[in-house]
Amino acid sequence: MATQDLEVNPPATDGITDLAFSPQIDLLAASSWDNQTRIWEVQPTGVTVAKASIPHEGPALCCAWSKDGTKLVSGGADKAGRMMDITTGQTTQVAAHDAPIKCCKWINTASMNNIIVTGSWDRTIKYWDARQPTPALQVSLPERCFALDVSGELMVVGTAERHILIYSLANPSTPFKQIVSPLKWQTRTIACFPNAAGYAIGSIEGRVGIQYVDERDQAQNFSFKCHRDDKNVYSVNAISFHPQHGTFSTAGSDGTYSMWDKDSKQRLKFIPTINMPISATAFNRTGSIFAYAASYDWSKGHEHYQAGAKNAIMLHATTDEEVKPRPKKR
Predict the structure, then answer these.
(1) 150-186 b/e with 16+ CB inside 10 Å = b?
(2) What does the pLDDT read at residue 244?
(3) pLDDT for 72-95, tens place per residue?
C-alpha cells in the first residue's frame, strides 16, 4: 500500500465487493462477502469512524447512495435489496429477485425520480419505488447481469456472453441500443461518463473500451490494454470516473491502479502493485479522496482463496497532477 494512504478501520472481515461514497458528505459504504454493507464516516483528518451496517443473509455484492445522501441501498446473494434510512437507522427490504442481486443504483431523472434499479443473475433488471413492495417495472435481459451503471438519463448494462444494453431512462423498458462488447472477453465492470455521453467497460482480459453513445461519435471509440505484465494478463475489476474532471481510474487483479485521461489518451498516474487484488474503487463527491479495496477477487478460483487474508480499504488523497486532464500530445 502507498505509505501515505490511510486505512479504513475497523475493516470488513471478508472480501469487499463494492465501494460507494455519499454524494453529500464523506460517508463511505462498502459491501462485503461477510454478509454486511458497512458505513464509515471519513473525518477531515482521514480517520474513519464506523457508523452503521446493513445485514444480509448472504454475501453483500453492491451498494449505492441516494442523491440526497439520506438512504443507502445494498444488494446481495440473499436475492434481496435492503435500504437503510441514515436519519433513522432503520433498514427495510425494498427489492427482491430470483437470484443474487449483482448491481444496484439510484436513478434521478425528470421521469424517474428517486427510483432504485437492481440487476440480477436471474436475467432481469427491476426498477423500484422504495415505498412500494412490487417493482415499478421489470425488464428481461439476454443473460445474467454482471455490471450496470447510471449517469443522468443514460443506463448501461453488461451481461454474461458479452451483451451490452444501453438505455435512455426516458424509456426504461427497452434498450435503444444493444451491442456485443468491443472487448473479446467477459465483462467485469462498466462506468458511465459523468456527462452521460458514453461509458467505459473493463474485461477479465486486462483491457478497457471507451464507447460513445451517439452514432456521430463512434469514430472516437477505442480500446486499450492495461493491468498486464510480461507474463500475465489480469482482470480489470473496477473503473471509477472523477466527478469533476472526467478522468478515470482502473484497478485490477494485479493489485495496481492507474488514473487515465481518455480525451488525450494518456496515463496520469500508476501505482505499483500492493500485492493483493484491488476489487473495488470510488471517488468521493469532490474527487479529493480515492478509495480502493484490497481483497481477493476470486479471479484465480477458490483454490487460491486464503482464509484469514487481510481485507483493507485504503484512502488516497488525490493531487491535481493525478486527476486533472492533460493537453493532447502532438
Answers:
(1) bbbbbbbbbbeebbbbbbbbeebeebeeeeebbbeeb
(2) 95
(3) 999 999 999 999 999 999 999 999
Q: What is the pLDDT of residue 303?
A: 57
* Residues 169, 154: Cα–Cα separation, whole Å: 6
pLDDT at 205: 94
H or E element: which one contains 320? Answer: helix 320-323
**What tens digit of pLDDT does each residue of 116-130 get?**
999 999 999 999 999
Residue 43 has pLDDT above 90, yes or no: yes
Go through the chain and tell me how many residues it has.
Answer: 330
Contact 155, 119 (CB under 8 A): no
- Cα(251)–Cα(296) distance, rounded to whole angstroms? 13
Q: Do residues 30 and 10 touch, judged by C-beta distance below 8 A?
A: no
Cell, residue 73:
441501498
φ, ψ of residue 271 to 5 degrees: the values are: -110, 135
Residue pointed to by grid coordinates 487515465: 260
**Strand locations in 194-273 (E):** 198-203, 207-212, 222-225, 236-241, 248-252, 257-261, 266-271
Nearest to 107, CA basis, from 78, 140, 85, 136 = 136
With the CA atoms of 321, 326, 195 and 244 taken in that order, what torsion angle do they form, in degrees rounded to the nearest 10?
20
Average pLDDT over residues 49-55: 97
pLDDT tier at 2, thresholds 50, 70, 90: low
Pair 96, 107: CB distance under 8 Å: no
Q: Which residues contact 103 (CB under 8 A, 6 or more apart)?
A: 61, 62, 75, 118, 119, 145, 146, 147, 148, 157
Is residue 193 within 8 Å of residue 215, measured between CB atoms?
no
- Measure the CA–CA gap between 262 and 135, rounded to whole angstroms: 37
Asked if 264 and 248 touch (Cβ cutoff 8 Å), the reply is no
Q: Is the pLDDT of residue 296 over 80?
A: no
Cβ neighbours of residue 306 closer than 8 Å, sequence gap 6 or more: 296
For residues 47-56, give the mean pLDDT.
Answer: 97
Distance CA 90, CA 131 (A): 14
